[in-house]
Amino acid sequence: MPEDTQQDEPAGRTNLTEGPTELTTTKPLWPWKLLLAVILIGMAAGIWGAVNRIDYTWRWNRVPQYFFYESEESITIPFDGRVEQIRSEGRMAVLTLVSETGDKKEARVEADTLRVEEGEELFEGDALGFVHEWRFGPLTTGLWTTLWLSGCASALALVIGLLTGLARISRNYTLRGLAALYVEFIRGTPLLVQIFIAYFFVGTVFNLSRNVAGIGALAIFAGAYVAEIVRAGIQSIPKGQMEAARSLGMNAFQAMAYIILPQAFKRILPPLAGQFISLIKDSSLVSVIAITDLTKSGREIITSTFATFEIWLTVAAMYLVVTSLMSQLVFYMERRLAVSD
């Protein structure tokens, strides 16, 4: 028998002797990238043209002070008395004050703002000097309020949604009925109305602060949507997973906690993240009950400065930055979970 001299084809080479082969071609991306650039440039030009038609004086230079600003605090003497001694400590001047009854107290002011001299007699409330320090502006404090409100509401909504989602698939008719009523009522009424009910009715009856009422309303609202996400995620896992876990000796709680929920979490992560991102934007509605979040801070600034467009665009950009960072975090988690499969 002659030796079989046929050898394997090198990787990547097409074997032309074995009939037609399917050729795969990669379409170039540069035309689509060029089209995208043209569309974006056209949109930017359209917005620029529309802005130029508006009879409005833009004052972007006034916006940074609402993030951080340097405050000037007047330091006054708290009693009738005199300045016994003034000593220097770097750029600060330390004043030793003596009251008419002999009590002593020290005060610190910036040396270049000193208004008094040693031995000078003063009355209560007289200015000694000033202290300058950097402080957070209303936009920064409003953003912080938005973040911690949303964070607390998201954590509470996750707990409510998980318990309600489990109740939705429970064999107990009462639990299923209560969970269904909760989900349908919350999803069928506006969030703004729920905030009003939580603050003006529930908050009045139970003497709740506006922050507690706002967090509660946001958490209950988001919890209904999280419940449906959790229910759908659990039901997407094949029933054989639960049966296999029970056959290994696990009870229902152990099977759900260690087998079903970890698998469901990977599937529900994107919609769950989308719900929490929406909650950050929905939190702007708590401004109607006088919680000074980012939106209310923006409105207060506009009231005093009339810089309508600059402030609203800045507020929108701040929301966009927060939600974009959260989206990137979720995308990173998705990739890590995909690697662990």
Automatic annotation (TrEMBL):
InterPro entries, A to Z: AA_ABC_transptr_permease_3TM (IPR010065), ArtM/GltK/GlnP/TcyL/YhdX-like (IPR043429), MetI-like (IPR000515), MetI-like_sf (IPR035906)
Similarity comment: Belongs to the binding-protein-dependent transport system permease family. HisMQ subfamily.
Ranges where the ABC transmembrane type-1 domain occurs: 143-330
Compartment(s) of residence: Cell inner membrane; Cell membrane
UniProt protein name: Putative glutamine transport system permease protein GlnP
Spans annotated as Disordered: 1-22
Cellular component annotations (GO), alphabetically ordered: ATP-binding cassette (ABC) transporter complex
Role summary: Part of the binding-protein-dependent transport system for glutamine; probably responsible for the translocation of the substrate across the membrane.
First-listed, main subcellular location of the protein, grouped into a coarse class: membrane
Pfam families referenced in this protein's UniProt entry, alphabetically: BPD_transp_1
SUPFAM superfamilies from the UniProt entry: MetI-like
Gene Ontology BP terms: amino acid transport
Organism from which the protein derives: Geothermobacter ehrlichii
Matching CDD domains: TM_PBP2
TM segment ranges: 34-51, 147-167, 179-202, 208-227, 248-265, 311-332
